[in-house]
Amino acid sequence: MGMSRIEQSIEDIYEFIENCKMQPLSSTKVVVPKDELYDLLDELRMRTPDEIKRYKKVIANREAILADAEKKVQQMIEDAKKQTDSLINNSEIMQKAYEQANDVVSKATEEANRILSEANQEADQVRLNALEYTNDLLKVAEASLRDAYQMSSKKFQELNSCLKQNLDVVVANRAELGVDSMNANQNASSEEQVDALVNQMEQKKQNNEDYNFDEDTFINNIP
To answer: How far out from the chain centre does Cα 80 lie?
Structure first.
């Protein structure tokens, strides 16, 4: 029997991971393109319900098997009754007819019971096999999804740790440069110079006001 659609999807995921590039300086880790892996997992997710429906249909055939068996049993019983009636109608062999009729009915009943028993066993086996097969497929899918999730989580943690280390290095390097401290000192010095200049201008203004005279002051004193 060929591969099911779920088996094919799982095989595609294994092949995809096998073809991924190895992570630098590692012999066990690979670099997995997240989008492509998610596409494969989505395909597996979409195919799973179809496979389950397929096996539900197989299980549903149990009713058809039982119905067919019952139909055969009814036909055999009717044939047995016809043979019985035919034998009974012959008065010369009445006793033999009864014996043969009972034998036919007995054999028909045994055969009917056998057919029903085999049909039930076959239907139960089909159902059991379908359930076991579906469970195996889901188990493989669960393992693949768990591995993919753990791998993605680990990659994210490693990336976050790397970014934190780089940030710490940059902060330490800026602290060593001391540019922020120099700018703060320069700003403070500039403010002091501006305050001193303003004070000088205020002082000059006051001095000029002390020597302001009326324009006729000296004219009136001329002889």
So the answer is: 61
